[in-house]
């Protein structure tokens, strides 16, 4: 919708891939490629922008992701935006020192109830 010339969606869960395709259809967008392999295990590609959400739910994954994002930033000058609802694994991770808040959103009540009392979600700009 913003005019990107190339898009790749990534989630290791094939059902998430189907949800991405349905979301494209609902927004009248041509579906784009979806990778259902762990992108962290593949050769790094050049991206202008990486947008990821709620990925810091596991300490080992968070550490691997942090290294990968730093490599993207320093190798390709990739801009990275991270969305997170404030999970403890994210709030306590060393990446916190490299983030700048872009915007914070209040979560709807049903989402709050489903997510153990998390009330907001924040978008962060990663700047190592």
Automatic annotation (TrEMBL):
Signal peptide: none annotated. One of its GO terms (biological process) is methylation. It catalyses: L-lysyl-[protein] + 3 S-adenosyl-L-methionine = N(6),N(6),N(6)-trimethyl-L-lysyl-[protein] + 3 S-adenosyl-L-homocysteine + 3 H(+). GO terms for molecular function: protein-lysine N-methyltransferase activity. The keyword Thylakoid does not apply. Transmembrane segments: none annotated. The keyword Methyltransferase applies. Keywords: Methyltransferase, Transferase. This is Electron transfer flavoprotein beta subunit lysine methyltransferase. Belongs to the methyltransferase superfamily. ETFBKMT family. GO terms for cellular component: mitochondrial matrix.
């Amino acid at each position: 919708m913003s005019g990107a010339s190339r898009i790749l969606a990534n989630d290791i869960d094939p059902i998430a891939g189907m949800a991405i395709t349905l979301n494209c259809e609902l927004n009248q967008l041509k579906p784009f490629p979806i990778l259902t392999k762990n992108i962290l295990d593949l050769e790094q590609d050049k991206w202008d922008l990486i947008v990821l959400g709620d990925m810091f739910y596991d300490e080992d994954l968070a550490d691997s992701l942090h290294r990968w994002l730093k490599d993207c930033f320093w190798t390709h000058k990739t801009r990275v935006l991270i969305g997170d609802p404030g999970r403890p694994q994210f709030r306590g991770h060393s990446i916190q020192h490299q983030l700048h808040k872009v915007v914070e959103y209040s979560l709807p009540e049903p989402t709050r109830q489903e997510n153990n009392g998390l009330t907001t979600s924040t978008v962060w700009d990663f700047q190592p």
